Amino acid sequence: MREYPRLYIDGAWRAPAGQGMAEVIDPASELAIGRVPLGDEQDVERAVQAARRAFGTWSRTPSSVRAGFIQALAEQLKARAAEMAEVITAELGMPVQWCQSVQVDGPIDGLEQYVELAGLMDRVHQVGNSRVYREAVGVCAFINPWNYPLHQLIGKLAPALAAGCTVVVKPSQETPLHAFLLAEMIDAIGLPPGVFNLVSGPGAKVGEALARHPLVDMVSFTGSTGAGVRVAQAAAPTVKRVCLELGGKSPFLITPEADLAAAVRHGVQDVMINSGQTCTALTRMLLPAQRYAEAVEIAVAEARQLVMGDPRVPASFLGPMCSAGQRRTVREYIEVGKTEGARLVLGDEPVPERGFYVAPTLFTEVDNRMRIAQEEIFGPVLCLIPYRDEAQAIALANDSPFGLSSAVWAGSREHGLDLARQLRAGQCFVNAAAFNYRAPFGGYKQSGNGREWGEEGLGEFVEIKAVQV
């Protein structure tokens, strides 16, 4: 049991003003594994004031010094990577075979790039009689999700520190333990007081208070589109900058000449990693009609052989849903799919009696207008949709309110690149290309605005000043 009775504010662990503690539940055992404080508006006020006091000095600290703190944090994470992975597996339920590489090693890689990128803040651009400077945007509030908790926290924190911003972090109530562990590491490296502050608690209190606080200059939110709209509305009266990384319903376009078996197996695994709780999951597989039956057979066979079980067992490919509420939501969507007329070809297999599990689920005969094809389910549910020709495939891919991610598997790299440019999404993976932490990440349409990672991620935390001389 990990118990954190205090919040991290102004460089120290401090007793919360908010009353009570929230239990953190292991979704595999349904048992409590930790407790964190239920912070409130008074805690937010203390944290924001601390961040505001620290901003002036921190933003003027040489970029090389800020880079040194970023590197020191990366070293802390490397030294405690196994512990961090263990914590995330326990609070989220992602199997150990994925957790270290995806949830910890990847974010460390992403963090380290900002050791170098911090130096971009020193560049001055001369335009005629004007000097153009980059300056830190100010005090930033981070409202984080539960599905890739450290990944999203580092994706905000690293560029903010590089730019010279100070921050207040609100972790998800489902998975807060990793953030407290990270705060221990930040305390160990001696980051100046007030630069990093951690306030846990319910979104309705802590998240809303952060979004509307007049001394917060920027809020970065990752979560559902509906919650993102509420954050933007709360932030609007103070005209603060808002960066939103929201939902997705990503298409995977497989062309007729593609390696069908390799493409379909890749698509099934992509959806089932983290039990479908991935905003970029390729949950709409678009298949050439002439190869549709063959593709369905491959998909069912691939999904059947994926092991679901205890996330602490190395053989497990899928673990549980993060919470009982998320399991309920996914089950409701599966019933919606049946009612809409889609054909359930996989999904009735038994699951462990204890834990919030949902079996890998495949629907065929899916019309792209169905709710299961238009709304984000956030579970191990894949829709297989046939298309007649390439034009229809592109139209189906783009027929979505979301535009976070996409993928193409084509017979050649050139054809894949051509198709990728026609898809309305913030990123596209061609023929199973790997995720790149040095490339910008973010969405079109209702998938949000702004970018994370890379130089573009740094830009979210930068103000541009022109000085005429």
From TrEMBL:
Question: Is-annotated flag, keyword Oxidoreductase?
Answer: yes
Q: Offer one Pfam family short name for this entry.
A: Aldedh
Q: Which domain of life is it from?
A: Bacteria
Q: Which InterPro entries match?
A: Ald_DH/histidinol_DH (IPR016161), Ald_DH_C (IPR016163), Ald_DH_CS_GLU (IPR029510), Ald_DH_N (IPR016162), Aldehyde_DH_dom (IPR015590)
Q: What are the catalytic residues?
A: 245
Q: Does the keyword Amino-acid biosynthesis apply?
A: no
Name the keywords, alphabetized. Oxidoreductase
Aldehyde dehydrogenase domain span? 13-467
- Matching PANTHER family, A to Z? ALDEHYDE DEHYDROGENASE, ALDEHYDE DEHYDROGENASE-RELATED
Describe the family membership recorded for this protein in Swiss-Prot or TrEMBL: Belongs to the aldehyde dehydrogenase family.
What protein name applies here?
Aldehyde dehydrogenase family protein
Taxon lineage: Bacteria, Pseudomonadati, Pseudomonadota, Gammaproteobacteria, Pseudomonadales
